[in-house]
Task: inverse folding
């Protein structure tokens, strides 16, 4: 099969290789998926750049966790009826070397759920990290019906889906965005109002929009940078679910202030979600996709030969939406 891999850490253009690789065989409990697409996420480019120094101890890595394709073979203990199923793949390169940047991947059958017939393989490559992370952030701390939910970076890969999950569940949603185009995308996804997080005192702007009503839940993309403003607009007992803190990677917490507000901070990473949370996210996603109930922002779709470019786009940090590579 054709595959993309790296043997040393470094820039995408410098270390990503493409060529022939042995096609894997499905082991017990596994399926073999012929991939049509692979999704590129920030965690993928960080791994390639060296964020996990021991990653290459076991050998070269075929990157990427997400993708979509068709089951072509099954291992022992898996029903042969799965052959021919359209599936999306998640968590492919977690705690192992072989991900979805290849024509085939063999992995646990549970990590290859059915992709609804009305859903493209391109969208299938956006489910694992973006959609499931958003689902966990919105629902990890209970129902959001009738609550006021703030989604920072609402036009981003996770934020765009978080707005939709919260809106579908009956929440009122306020989002933040930095330009008119992104603000419109937030409104189309279900946000009733949008504030510009590039402007000073945007936390107060949230309260101005809500006539002083404070936020019950926050889904946050930049915890360290956003925390000072969030403390202005969240209520006593609020929950902040955050999945990134890139600008301020080691934030200092105003402990006394947060303690007296009885705040809950939930840090979310899709790999560490409880299995029941993953199963619920998968089931809810399959229903929403079947109903045509989710909007998708696919920023770039590139051919396999431009894998390094796909990594560069994600690493630049300015893209809004998913970056997908086709096989």
Result:
């Amino acid at each position: 099969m054709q595959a993309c891999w790296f043997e040393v850490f470094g820039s995408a253009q410098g270390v990503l290789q493409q060529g022939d690789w042995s096609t894997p065989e499905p082991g017990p409990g596994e399926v073999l998926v012929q991939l049509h697409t692979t999704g590129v996420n920030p965690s993928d480019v960080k791994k390639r750049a060296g964020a996990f120094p021991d990653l290459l101890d076991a050998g070269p890595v075929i990157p990427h966790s997400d993708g979509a394709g068709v089951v072509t073979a099954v291992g022992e203990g898996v029903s042969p009826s799965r052959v021919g199923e359209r599936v999306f793949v998640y968590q492919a390169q977690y705690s192992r070397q072989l991900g979805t940047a290849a024509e085939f991947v063999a992995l646990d059958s549970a990590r290859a759920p059915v992709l609804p017939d009305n859903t493209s393989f391109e969208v299938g490559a956006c489910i694992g990290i973006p959609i499931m992370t958003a689902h966990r952030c919105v629902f990890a701390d209970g129902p959001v019906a009738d609550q006021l939910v703030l989604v920072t970076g609402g036009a981003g890969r996770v934020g765009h889906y978080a707005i939709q999950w919260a809106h579908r569940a009956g929440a009122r949603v306020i989002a933040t965005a930095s330009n008119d185009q992104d603000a419109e995308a937030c409104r189309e996804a279900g946000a009733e109002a949008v504030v510009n997080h590039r402007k000073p005192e945007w936390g107060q702007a949230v309260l101005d929009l809500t006539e002083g009503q404070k936020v019950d839940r926050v889904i946050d993309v930049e915890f360290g940078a956003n925390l000072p403003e969030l403390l202005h607009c969240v209520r006593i007992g609020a929950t902040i679910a955050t999945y990134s803190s890139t600008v301020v990677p080691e934030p200092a917490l105003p402990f006394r202030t947060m303690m007296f507000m009885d705040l809950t901070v939930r840090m979310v990473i899709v790999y560490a979600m409880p299995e029941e949370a993953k199963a619920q996210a998968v089931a809810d996603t399959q229903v929403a996709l079947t109903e045509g109930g989710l909007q998708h922002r696919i920023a770039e779709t590139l051919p396999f030969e431009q894998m390094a470019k796909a990594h560069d786009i994600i690493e630049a940090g300015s893209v809004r939406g998913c970056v997908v590579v086709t096989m």
